[in-house]
Amino acid sequence: MSAQVSSIDELKTTPWAGGKSPFNVEYGKMMMWFFLLSDAFTFSSLLIAYGALRFSSSTWPAADLIFQSVPGMIDHGAPLVFVGLMTFILIMSSVTMVLAVEAGHRMAKKEVVGWMIATIIGGFMFLGCQALEWTHLHHEGFWWGSIPHELGEYFRHGEATSVTSTHQFANLFFTITGFHGFHVFSGVVINIIITINVLAGTYEKRGSYLMVEKVGLYWHFVDLVWVFVFTFFYLV
Amino acid sequence: MSSENAELHHDEHGEHESMSRGKIWKVFAILLGITVIEFIIALWLVPKGHIPLHWANPIYIVLTLFKAFYIVAYFMHLKFERIGLMISIIVPILFIIGLILVLTNESHYWTELR
Predict the structure, then answer these.
(1) What is the architecture of the domain spanning A27-235?
(2) CB-based contact, A85 to chain B, within 8 Å
(3) What is the pLDDT of residues A190-199, one digit of tens each?
(4) What's the pLDDT score for residue A2?
(5) Burial of A106 (0-12, 13-18, 19+ CB in 10 A)
(6) pTM (2 decimals)?
(7) Where are the domains of chain A?
(8) From residue A8, how far is each of A3, A5, A13, A18, A20 by CA, in Å?
(9) Testing the interface with B: which of A112, A215, A221, A236 to mutate, by most B Cβ within 10 A?
(10) What residue segments make up the domains of chain B, in order of their start?
(11) Which of A31, A151, A183, B98 could form a disulfide with A161 if both were Cys (CB 3.0 to 4.6 A apart)?
(12) B8 interaction partners in chain A (CB closer than 8 Å)
């Protein structure tokens, strides 16, 4: 009997036994994770709505026929080249972000600043590319609620053209890439603020570059969303 | 506040070491490689008729999920967090799968309505 009681009274040291944080992450970082989870739901809803509309249509404009220009250079016959460049820029800026986080762990202020600036430049380059692509599509006649008059060139050979599905495509494309671009823009602004703080020595005084990690989480999430947007708008 | 941050940071320090610069570039190479494979499929294998379109789409989705795994696990560092945090982030994703199932089913019904 006494042996049983003593085994119950024994102090547990497991993560959930109390007395310490079971997640072992700082509050702000955990909240960033939960914010990103909720944002993942928003983007999924948009992409799943796109999928449902597309599945229920008998024809849909073909991505490699719509996106086949490099704005300012090639007008036709270069399918997916430009979006390939955009994807590369975003993956690259994700890498410079992890390198900033890694430099932060070593408390190397100068390296953090360098990699953060590289990330910001990557973000601006992506936004610039997106602006060019939107302008190009707008010149062709695509916008929210408007499509070109002649649709033959956007549908695969032998497929019937459809005004309804082209309208749906245009609305969904501008809404989803626009919402993503808005996230990239916010990310760039937050990155700039954090870089200014790094330069001011705020995190050096604090003894940890955890803020760089938090903004890094957001930035990787933006990259993650682009991976899905890229697949479902440009490849499938 | 500041000492708390430093303490948490210190606790994790050993685990952070697993994301070295070499490892970062390795993950980058994997992400770039997968993207290149996707382009080869989209620009060469499908147009030349080596693989039919209805095979290409599931391949794209699988490759995308691989990329998503590498970004979340290594760049976002989730692989090295405590199991409790991992579960609380990954399990709610099941709701998204639920929405996919519901809306794909619904879209078949819309086809009949059109």
Answers:
(1) Up-down Bundle (1.20)
(2) no
(3) 999 999 999 9
(4) 57
(5) exposed
(6) 0.89
(7) 27-235
(8) 9, 5, 13, 15, 20
(9) A236
(10) 2-81, 83-114
(11) A151
(12) 21, 24-26, 208, 210
